[in-house]
Amino acid sequence: MNTSSKIIRHLSMAIAVAFTIGQSVSAQSLARSESDEGGWRHSITPYLFLPLSTTGTSTIDGTSVDLDLSLSEVLDVLQGAASVRYEGWNGDFGIISEVYYVRLGEDGTLPGGRVDVDVDVRQTFFNVQGAYRFANGVNASGRRYAADAAIGVQWNRLKQEIDLSGPGPGMTLGGTEEWFEPMIALRYIMEINEKWSFASRAELSGFGVNGDDLQYLLLAGFDWKGWENTSLRFGYQFYGIDYSTDRSGGEFAYDVDQNGVYAAVAFHF
Fold this sequence. Notes:
Elements: H1 3-20, E1 40-60, E2 63-70, H2 71-75, E3 78-90, E4 93-109, E5 116-138, E6 144-165, E7 171-191, E8 196-205, E9 212-224, E10 230-247, E11 250-268
Antiparallel strand pairs: 1-2, 1-3, 1-11, 3-4, 4-5, 5-6, 6-7, 7-8, 8-9, 9-10, 10-11
Protein name: Outer membrane protein beta-barrel domain-containing protein
InterPro entries: OMP/PagP_B-barrel
């Protein structure tokens, strides 16, 4: 592996965190009772996704590197992250919004000790969705269930940049890209008992708009209502992205698949 590829592999490890630690979603719990269906119901859910496996290809300034990362390798470059999801429902209609920010980085020196490397990765997304609950009832076991559909738009910002400094002139590889894309989602929720419920969700976005051929998200998990207005959520998630664009320095692309566990705390009011 040449020096350029080694540099980009360091950056790619950071990028893997940027697209995975925040890409989790949580399932809106059913109303506490059928009588609570009227009026607004809200939830705020901080969450975390930990990718046990990250595979794919990262391309920066026309140079591509294959990725096959473990969770420990991904976490090595994490400097901080914040992610939260909001849902508000009134009857069968809902508003969903999610915001995420992460900063990653790595400093080092190339072989020979004459060139310093500073890796800076920051990823942000913000989306707004309108949702409709098209199914809401009680199954044969007397347990409640619901199914939702949502459509919206997401703004993405990705910075993947490497600064090289040494005795001679410095050099910067990579850069920053921003884009909007449409998104759709389906979700199913089923009550298991008074404390537990099951939820699954599928989400698609991109569809070739602004360089993002496709982002997909599939998850399944459980919600435990341990307190009147607070619940814990956990499950397993599959996520992938296929984004590419042309820059003056060459192709800028990210084609990666991940899977791993997620956990969240939901506050209801």
